[in-house]
């Protein structure tokens, strides 16, 4: 049994409660580690340490912070194999995926924001003949970074790296469902020699640790990625204190496939966008809208490909899909599939728990599921499922496709598939979503703004947008006489 510790003021320590939560591996359902069940007392201790550390870190040179972040990135790369295995074990995702995506991206996040910091500078607005304005960007102080379980280290570092680079001290709260790589990160940070208190990692439940961060009067900003209902709860708590909030929330993303699309590519990428990471990526396309003249062909080809997907133990290099993250999450996905059937949905493939057997015995696996014959206003097409489940719906016109695509309360991402360049631009601009991909999916440039419209979030992260969030702008206007 592995016992994880909080990382507060540069020390590894037990939670104030002395209590731990069991943490299982979704690949086989076996408990293998214990996570600190921390509470407000641990958050307060972390806050005091971070506030002290901020006295120096907040005034440190960019070069010093750059070097520290690069050392953390080096540390992630040195422990690459261990991190990749830990992430796969903790989350249930295939090992090849953690090796190709999660862990490389975690070190890339540190390198990206370390180097971006060197290029982030004051803006100047000259009022010719009168004055010069320059805008300083100050770090905020002690900030809270709360992350979900679907891309554990990837999203945790996506927040922590820019927050630290901008000169803030951080209290990080990883998901209690997938705490393991965040714990390993605290070891890496200690090895890298980051000054004590600059980064603190407090493990535990959202209702205790996350809530304590949102409530803390000394913490002026929270960067949160997770569910829409949790985002609303954080906003309710934080708004009266006028905290800065960056909320990256849920999605119900459309893939719009026009008849003139390259169908080979549209089918290939729809398999990825529906089922990569077991469908547990906020950007996954869960509503596939297809122009009626190619609907049957596209559907039959997609179903044939989905049936070929190998589901199994995450360590098997041949599996495309591993386990979903937990037993309750698997049960939620299966219940949503039952609801879809009650709503008139026809299950074209999957629709049930998968039992790969062998070392995957006891794990939480769901077969890749495609469903058709549902109205767009039913709950299956309106509520996020966050699993390997996508629906197929035909449309007749561009207007109808847009109306269907924009009909949910979410607005995170969408993809448009067409060979008509005019239509591609037209439809992209009219989609109510923070991102649109044309003839691809999940192609990411870290400099671009990342975030959602409507109930998918508030604010944008990525590139200098992250620095805008993690700093306070201050304009200085200097009158110049005789200019
Ligand atoms: P969640 O909202 O249940 O939990 C996210 C984090 O918030 C966890 O660390 C949790 O402990 C914490 N938390 C829970 N209650 C809290 C509270 N009252 N106060 C403060 N923190 C609290 O989400 P999840 O189930 O871990 O993740 C899945 C969700 O995340 C999905 O809805 C998915 O779409 C979303 N997501 C969004 C993005 C994006 O960039 N928009 C990216 C990944 C995941």
What order do the helices and strands come in, and which of them pair?
Blueprint: E1 2-3, E2 6-8, E3 11-13, E4 20-25, E5 30-36, H1 40-57, H2 62-78, H3 80-91, H4 95-119, E6 123-127, E7 131-139, E8 142-146, H5 152-165, E9 169-173, H6 180-192, E10 199-201, H7 206-215, E11 221-225, H8 228-238, E12 244-248, E13 253-257, H9 263-275, E14 285-291, H10 292-308, H11 327-342, E15 346-349, E16 353-354, E17 365-366, E18 369-372, H12 379-382, E19 389-395, H13 398-405, E20 410-411, E21 413-417, H14 421-430, E22 435-438, E23 453-454, E24 457-458, H15 463-469, E25 471-479
Helix pairs in contact: 1-7, 2-4, 2-6, 3-4, 4-5, 7-8, 9-10
This protein binds nicotinamide-adenine-dinucleotide (NAD).
């Amino acid at each position: 049994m592995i016992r994880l510790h909080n990382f507060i003021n540069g020390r590894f320590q037990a939670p104030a409660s002395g209590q731990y939560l069991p943490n299982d591996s979704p690949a086989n359902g076996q408990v293998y580690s214990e996570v600190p069940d921390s509470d407000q007392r641990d958050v307060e201790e972390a806050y005091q340490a971070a506030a002290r550390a901020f006295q120096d870190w907040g005034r440190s040179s960019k070069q010093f912070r750059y070097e520290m972040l690069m050392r953390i990135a080096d540390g992630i790369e040195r422990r690459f194999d261990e991190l990749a295995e830990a992430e796969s074990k903790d989350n249930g995702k295939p090992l090849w995926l953690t090796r190709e995506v999660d862990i490389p991206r975690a070190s890339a996040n540190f390198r990206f924001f370390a180097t971006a910091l060197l290029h982030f500078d004051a803006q100047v607005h000259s009022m010719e003949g009168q004055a010069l304005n320059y805008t300083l960007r100050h770090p905020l102080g002690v900030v809270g970074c709360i992350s979900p379980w679907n891309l554990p280290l990837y999203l945790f570092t996506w927040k922590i790296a820019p927050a630290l680079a901008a000169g803030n001290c951080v209290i990080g709260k990883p998901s209690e469902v997938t705490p393991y790589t965040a714990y390993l990160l605290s070891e890496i940070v200690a090895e890298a020699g980051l000054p004590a208190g600059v980064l603190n990692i407090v493990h535990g439940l959202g209702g205790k640790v996350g809530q304590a961060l949102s409530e803390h009067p000394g913490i002026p900003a929270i960067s949160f990625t997770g569910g829409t209902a949790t985002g609303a709860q954080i906003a309710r708590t934080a708004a009266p204190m006028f905290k800065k909030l960056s909320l990256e929330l849920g999605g119900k993303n459309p893939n719009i496939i026009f008849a003139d699309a390259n169908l080979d590519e549209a089918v290939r990428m729809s398999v990825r966008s529906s089922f990569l990471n077991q469908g547990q990526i906020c950007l996954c396309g869960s509503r596939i809208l297809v122009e009626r003249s190619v609907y049957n062909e596209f559907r039959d080809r997609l179903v044939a490909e989905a049936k070929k997907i190998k589901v199994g133990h995450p360590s098997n290099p041949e599996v495309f899909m591993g386990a979903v993250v937990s037993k309750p999450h698997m049960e939620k996905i299966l219940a949503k599939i039952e609801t879809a059937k009650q709503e008139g949905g026809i299950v074209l493939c999957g629709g049930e728990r998968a039992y790969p057997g062998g070392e995957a015995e006891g794990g939480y696996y769901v077969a890749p599921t495609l469903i058709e014959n549902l109205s767009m206003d039913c709950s299956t097409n309106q509520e996020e499922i966050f699993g390997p489940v996508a629906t197929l719906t035909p449309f007749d016109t561009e207007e109808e496709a847009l109306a269907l695509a924009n009909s949910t309360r979410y607005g995170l991402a969408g993809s448009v598939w067409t060979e008509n360049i005019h239509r591609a631009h037209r439809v992209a601009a009219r989609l109510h979503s923070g991102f649109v991909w044309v003839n691809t999916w999940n192609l990411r440039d870290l400099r671009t703004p990342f975030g959602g419209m409507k109930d998918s979030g508030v604010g944008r992260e990525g590139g200098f947008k992250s620095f805008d969030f993690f700093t306070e702008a201050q304009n200085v206007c200097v009158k110049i006489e005789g200019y």
